Each structure stands twice: as structure tokens, then as C-alpha cells.
Amino acid sequence: MFEDAVKRYVENNNQMYKDGIFRKETYISHESMIRKLVGYNESRDVPITYLYQLDRLFCNDFLDYIHLTLGNSPLYRNNCLVFIKAFCTFCVEKGLMNENPAKGVKPYKRNLIEKRRKVIPPAIVRQIGEHLLRHDKHFLLACYLLYYCCVRPIEQTRLKLQYFNLKDCTLTIPAEDSKNRRTQTVTLPKKVILLMLDLGVFNNPPHFYLFSNELLPGSVQIDRRLITIRWSRLKKELKLDDDYTFYSLKDTGITEMLEKNLSNISVRDQARHSSLAVTDIYTQRRKKADKHIVDLDGAL
User: pLDDT tens-digit profile of 232-288?
Assistant: First the structure.
């Protein structure tokens, strides 16, 4: 029965989260996806009852529902395809289905999906920096960490003060808090350190999160959306282009590092690119601070 399969999938998702195999955001994402799948089935003129009715046509119709009916992006449609494949794989592994009907469904090609973020011109980056320096230094620190250190929003919400080494000018993100589940060290430019000292963040206990309620250090881990909400508010205040997303700061920072003729290896380590697993075969990953990045002073 379709309903029984959904129930078992939800129970498995709950257990994986309790066992620490799934992170909170992964757990929430799976819960959201399964609700959308159930919601789609209930919206059909004739909902399916048995798992054998979950065929390739059902999968394609579900994806059209996500993309066309609900108006989600092509990229989100691809994410839902990953989910429906995973759900069907789960059913096959549990002996509930004989084969995965979503296996042959193709995602939209990534090169055909326009990336809705772009590099921010230096003049606008300076405008952002000057505005936040006057009005919101704690959010400026979040921007610095993305721009100079390529620390993603979800990772920023997990940062604890004990991860920072001011003497060595480094930030080490443990595997359990890194998006790619690898312990990695990046360089902290002096500009970032000076702002942190100015804000007095290290006057707090080392186990405190760098960003808690109101983006101040504290014991409560916040939702990453609170950071991106701040960015949305900033865009309205400065009337910035909609295509300038918070993540645009990462692209902009990387671009600036390359334009300042930092070595590709330095930028690779600082950005923790997804290709690092390949490049690590040929080049030993950085374990110490990069002297060029320590003195980096960009437009922000």
C-alpha cells in the first residue's frame, strides 16, 4: 500500500535523525518532500492506493505538479526528482517494489538552469560594507565570513567561538558542522578578526555560537533563514538588484581573490570547492593560514 510505504519512510527518516545520521536540515527537507508527495497524490482525480501504481508516469506528473502547478524553480524540481528516486529506492530495498520507476526520469540539465545570482560590482560591495558598518556590524560579520572565508549560511549558524584561532588566523570547521562533512581549515583575514574583536565576541564562553539570537553570540543555534532574511532587508534598504543574493558575496569574494592574483590553490582551499577531493590528489591541502589571505582587504 502507498500509505504504508510513506509511513515506513517517515519512520526511517525519524530514526536516521535521532541516530545523528541525518542533520536537522536534511530531516526537515525529507519531511517536506514526503508531504508534497502525499499532497500531490491527494490532489489527483484518482489517487493511487497501491505502490505498483507509482509508475514512471506518476513520477513525471508529480514533477510537473511541483514545477508547473506549484510554480517552483527548475532546480527545485530537480531536487524533488532526487527525492522521488530516493523514496522509490527505499521501497525497493524494503521489498515493497520490484524496481525503481523514477530511475529513467531525467533532470533538467544544470547548464540550462540560469543561476539567479551574480557577482556584485566593487562599488556596490563598498556601499554594503559602509552601510552595515554604520547600522549592523553583526550582520557585517556574517557578510565578511561569506565574502572572505566562503562560510555558507548554514555553516555560519553552527560556528562556535572555539573554532576560531586568532593566533594562527584560522577558522576550523569540524566535519559535523561542515556542509560536506569534512573537517576543514580556512584563513581568517585580519579585517575579519579586527571586526570580531571590535564586537567583543570573544568575551563570551568558547562553547557559544558566534551567531545566536539577534545574530549575537549565544547558546541557542538559530535557523539559517534568519541570516538570509537580514540580507533581504538590506536589499530593500539599499534598493539592490534582486539577483544579488546573499550567496553572491561568496562568488564576488572568490572572483576578487582571483583578480588579486592569489594562487588557484589558495583560492581552492579558502573556498573549499567541491573539486577539492580531486585536487587533493595532486596538492596537499593547506593546514596553516595563507599569508596572502591574512592581509586581504577587499571592497567589502
Answer: 999 999 999 888 889 889 888 887 877 777 766 777 777 776 554 322 322 333 455
Gap between the Cα atoms of 286 and 266, Å rounded: 8
Tell me the three cell numbers of residue 40: 500531490
Query: CA 244 to CA 120: how far, in whole Å?
Result: 7
Question: pTM here?
Answer: 0.67
C-alpha cell at 103: 530511475
Q: Residue holding cell 533563514?
A: 225
Per residue in 44-88, pLDDT (tens digit) is 999 999 999 999 999 999 999 998 888 888 888 999 999 999 999
Q: What are the respective helix, strand and coil percentages of the chain, to the nearest 5?
A: 55, 5, 40
Cα(228)–Cα(139) distance, integer angstroms: 10
Grid cell 506518476 is found at 58
Q: Give the number of other CB atoms < 10 A from CB of residue 217.
A: 22
Contacts of 195 (CB under 8 A, 6+ apart): 137, 140, 141, 144
Name the grid cell of 197.
574583536
State the amino acid at position 251 in one-letter form.
Answer: D
Q: SS3 for 288?
A: coil
Please provide the distance, in angstroms rounded to a whole number, between the alpha carbons at the two ends of the chain: 56
Cα 80 from Cα 31, distance rounded (Å): 12
Instruction: Quote the cell numbers at residue 287.
Output: 593546514
Nearest to 191 by CA among 154, 140, 157, 257: 140
CB burial class (10 A; 0-12, 13-18, 19+) of residue 23?
A: middle
**Cα(59)–Cα(32) distance, rounded to whole angstroms?**
17
DSSP 8-class letter at 234: H
Q: What angle in degrees, to the nearest 10, is found between the helix axes of 56-64 and 24-43? A: 100
Report all structural domains of the chain as residue ranges with CATH numbers, in order of start. 2-112 (1.10.150.130), 122-294 (1.10.443.10)
